[in-house]
Amino acid sequence: MNPVRSEKGVALIIVLLLLAVMAGLTTGLTLNGQTEIAMAHNETYYARTRAAAEAGMNRATEQILGDITTDLIATKAIPNIGNGPIALNDEYSYSFQLLDDDDPLLYGGDPLSADQLAAMGADKVPPAPENNNPNVDTNSRMVLRATGFGPRGTTVTVARILNRDTIAGFPGMNINPAILVNGDLALDGNSLVVNGKKGNVHANGDITSDDTGTMGTGITGDVTATGDIDENIDPGGLRAGGMPVMPVPEIKAEDYLGIATHKLTSAGTMLVRTAPGVPGTWAACTGSGALKCPTQWTWNSTTSTWKADGAMPTSGVTKSTYYVEGNAEVHGTGKSTGFTEISIIAQGNLKITGNGKFKPGNDSKMQFVTNGDFELGGTADSDDPLDMDGQIMVREQMHIYGNSKFQGRVMVEDRDGATNGCSVSMVSGCRKGTSQLSDNHLSGNMTVTYNGQLGGMDVPAAPTTFTNVISGWIEQ
Fold first, then answer.
1. Which of 141, 140, 117 minimizes the C-alpha distance to 129?
2. How far apart are CA 101 and CA 295, in angstroms?
3. Of 46, 184, 361, 388, which has the most beta carbons under 10 Å away?
4. Are the C-beta atoms of 125 and 138 separated by less than 8 Å?
């Protein structure tokens, strides 16, 4: 045989070629698998990063819609949580941007044309076009962007439109109404009269009426409330609900012990102050003159009530202010002419009926003060024609009714009777005795006249508030 034509070694060459081909295929398949794995990882990173961006958007939306005090255009920061970045874990986080809708940053850094800017303000009345200035907003519209960050530089940005309405706050004021109730108030009776230079009524709640006809025409001033006002109420001045809260100070009988001339104790004894204005200078009343025991008062230990029937209580001094360590009731008659200068300050409930004629028994103009409930009814008259404004201060609830008259200001703190009792909590201002009333009521032919001589209380200016609306969805 010719050695040149021998086929020895061909099989080895074929095997090597096949191995080379298989190695190439294996390498290709491996590279393709790695690419698919990388693509799968990238899809996972994108999906999770987008979820981070959406989570950030939802969180920002919740904070913005729940906040009415922050001017977002001024702060350009999400309330409470800021703009971030905020980490979800070691790999994912998100951050925020609040941008004016004409901010060039939203458009690749390119300023908008005049027509585009004009279109942005076309929905305002009058039209208020934007101006390519990211720090000056004229159409109250912004863009909220949330950007999610993930591994390998993955970022996803989503955006929404933020519109805002600005509601100017009420200015500061000095309030001094005839009737001020820190709660709901019921007005009944067509003959109800509230007049004088400050013949106004305000309730930090609703003002209602049980009458079906028009009533409140005897109220010469304003009737205002933080809540709603019954449509049947028709005052001479403003009738307005949704007004700001008017502060009512804490009312405690103990704060006025210093102006008392006499103390009617829970032990049934009568004391007189021996040194006016000096704390602790009390002595048992006796004899006549300044130490004379007050007349007409009797003590009922069962009800813890000091009560005066018949003639009005008097003492050995011209002006008397009685501090009662319990309930007080006066059902008496006044002088044939003139007014009896007495005041009553009670740690319990206080009830005035009959036809007594009162004016304040102290220079502080405190007429009646109670830690509990207050009633003024019958034909009781505390309306001095000499224009002596007095003050009624009630910690719980009040009823003024009948043909009674009062000249001055009525302030009601409207404390809850169930929690204000001394048997519940022995604290300053607690009520001795049992609560009698559950609501605040003015009715009948009663008259309150107030000319504003007691001085008002300052109500601070209410802040400007903002109502935010978020709409739309933008993928970036």
1. 117
2. 80
3. 361
4. no
Do the Cβ atoms of 329 and 307 come closer than 8 Å? Answer: yes
Does pTM top 0.70 for this prediction? no
Residue 166's CB: how many other CB atoms inside 10 A?
Answer: 11
User: What's the pLDDT score for residue 170?
Assistant: 65
Tell me how far the alpha carbon of residue 140 is from its chain's centroid.
Answer: 27
Closest CA to 346 of 395, 388, 389, 297: 395
Q: Which residue is listed with tokens 């790695």? A: 34
DSSP label at 450? -
Assigned domain for 356 exists: yes
Query: Are 165 and 183 within one domain?
Result: no
User: Torsions phi, psi of 124, nearest 5?
Assistant: -90, 150
Tell me the pLDDT of the chain averaged across its residues: 86
Domain, as residue range, for 111: 45-169+466-475
For 185-326, list the strands marked E by DSSP. Answer: 185-187, 193-195, 201-203, 207-208, 223-225, 239-240, 262-264, 270-273, 282-284, 297-300, 305-311, 320-324
Residue 445 has pLDDT above 70, yes or no: yes
Residue 267 three-state SS: coil
Write out the two tokens for 184: 């709901």
Number of domains present in the structure of the chain: 2
Residues 383, 440 within the same domain:
yes
pLDDT at 468 over 80: yes
Q: What percent of the chain has pLDDT over 90?
A: 44
